[in-house]
Amino acid sequence: MQITFETKPYPTLETEALVTYVFEAYDPIQARVADIDRAAAGLLKKLAASGELTGKTLEFTLLHAPAGLKAERLLLIGAGKRDQFNVATLRKIAGAAARSLKAKSVKNFAFLANEGLSPEDAAQAIAEGLITGDFETDKYKTDKKSDKRIDSVSLVGFSDSEKPAAEKGLNRGQIIAESQNFTRDLVNEPSNKLTPRILAEKAEAMAREAGLAVDILDEKRIADLKMGALLSVAQGSVEPPRVIVVTYTPAKVKADAPVIGLVGKAVTFDTGGISIKPADGMEKMKYDMAGGATMLGVMRAIAALKPNVKVIGVVPATENMPGGKAQKPGDIQTAMSGKTIEVLNTDAEGRLILADAITYAKQLGATHLVDAATLTGAIVVALANVNVGVFGSADQSWTDKLLASSRATGEKMWQLPMDDEYREFIKGSFADMQNIGSGKGGGSITGAWFIREFAGDTPWIHLDIAGTAWNDDVKPWLAKGPTGVALRTLVHLVSSL
Ligand code: BES
Ligand code: ZN
Ligand code: ZN
Question: Model-level pTM greater than 0.90?
Answer without folding.
Answer: yes
